[in-house]
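Lab notebook, design round three. We kept the backbone fixed and only want residue identities now. Task for the bench partner: fill in a sequence for the structure below.
Input structure tokens:
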């Protein structure tokens, strides 16, 4: 006997396809976070990587970016980019001029090209406008948080915020000039 509905509350059910989707999503998160924590431990920067995720996820949610049709390739790319880029940048000195150039580039790309959608998840015109606006607002907020960190000499957090902008820069460049749906 196959379970096709799961009772949540009285007279409320989750359909089988929703259970399958939820199950797949949980597997993908586990597939991502176990290696993510292992790499973070090896890099000795668990806190940096977690802070990076806290800044990166809201921006990525609205900006879009690189998407692969293969979920394992997508997870691998995410794992590499989210684990390696913050580590490398944390070992680097980022000047205000470089920070400003990356910020301006990201704003110009988002402002002129919009957000980066995936053929598997098309957005309506009003959603595109809203996501573009949210992306720009988040970028400006992050820019000023980064400036404050630079002023207060909290360079670790400044590097994390720059890492977020760098990854957006990379994805924006890839999606704009290289990738085609």
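Proposed sequence:
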């Amino acid at each position: 006997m196959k379970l096709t509905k799961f009772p949540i509350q009285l007279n409320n059910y989750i359909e089988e396809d929703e259970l399958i989707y939820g199950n797949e999503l949980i597997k993908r998160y586990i597939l991502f976070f176990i290696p993510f924590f292992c790499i973070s431990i090896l890099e000795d920067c668990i806190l940096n990587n977690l802070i990076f995720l806290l800044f990166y996820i809201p921006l990525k949610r609205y900006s879009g970016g690189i998407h692969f049709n293969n979920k394992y390739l997508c997870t691998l790319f995410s794992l590499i980019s989210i684990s390696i880029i913050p580590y490398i940048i944390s070992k680097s000195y980022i000047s205000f001029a470089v920070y400003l150039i990356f910020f301006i580039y990201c704003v110009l790309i988002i402002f002129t090209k919009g957000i980066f959608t995936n053929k598997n998840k098309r957005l309506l015109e009003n959603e595109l406008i809203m996501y573009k606006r949210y992306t720009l607002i988040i970028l400006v907020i992050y820019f000023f948080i980064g400036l404050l960190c630079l002023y207060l000499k909290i360079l670790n957090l400044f590097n994390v915020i720059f890492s977020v902008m760098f990854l957006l820069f990379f994805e924006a460049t890839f999606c704009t000039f290289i990738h085609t749906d």
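Keep this in mind before ordering anything: Helices lie at 16-43, 46-63, 71-90, 96-113, 125-151, 155-178.
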